[in-house]
Amino acid sequence: MKKGVFFVFLLTVLVLVSCNSKDSTGANEPMKVEVLLEMPEKADPGEKVEISALVTQGTEAVEDADRVLFEIWENGKKDEGKMIEYTKNDRGNYRIDHVFESAGVYYVQVHVDARNMHVMPKKKIIVGDVEDSDSTEEDDDSEHHH
Questions:
Q1: Cys-Cys crosslink for 67: which of 14, 113, 120, 145, Cβ 3.0 to 4.6 Å?
Q2: pTM of the model
């Protein structure tokens, strides 16, 4: 008798595990939260730049994100980067104004926690008259080690 009970238990566990697997696209799964990071590709030192993240889920704007932080760092100096909390939220469009003090190649990555999902798109901005030849080091590695 015990063997039968154990088998049923094992089957139940297997069914539960397969329901929770990440790549199943069941109809009842919540839609992905998407973040559109928008900002100019170039700016001048000392110029105020608007950086915005439009957070949506399906066709709906997400106005209740748990956290929206803009991480800004100069190429090669991620450790010295700054985390800036959004200052304006206009129907799911979270924005900050930022002044890049000195010329260089910078990265902006927005960290959005909303509806139990974490999304973090990243963009590059060139400030002032600088060569953008050496900015490959951030492009692959920063997405994955979280």
A1: 113
A2: 0.72
Is 67 in contact with 112 (CB distance < 8 Å)?
yes
Structural domain span for residue 109: 31-129
CA distance linking residue 85 with residue 95, whole number of Å:
9
Task: Report the CATH number at residue 89.
Answer: 2.60.40.1930
| Residue 7 counted as domain residue | no
Q: How far apart are CA 13 and CA 41, in angstroms?
A: 50
Render pLDDT for 56-94 as a digit per residue (tens, 0 to 9). 999 999 999 999 999 999 999 999 999 999 999 999 999
Residue-level pLDDT at 12: 53
Assess if residue 57 is contained within a domain: yes
DSSP string across 83-112 = EEE-SEEETTEEEEEEE--S-EEEEEEEEE
- How far the first Cα of the chain sits from its last, in Å, is 47
Burial class (CB in 10 A: 0-12, 13-18, 19+), 64: exposed
Q: Are strands 93-99 and 48-57 parallel, antiparallel or unpaired?
A: antiparallel
| Number of domains making up the chain | 1
Say if 122 falls within a structural domain.
yes
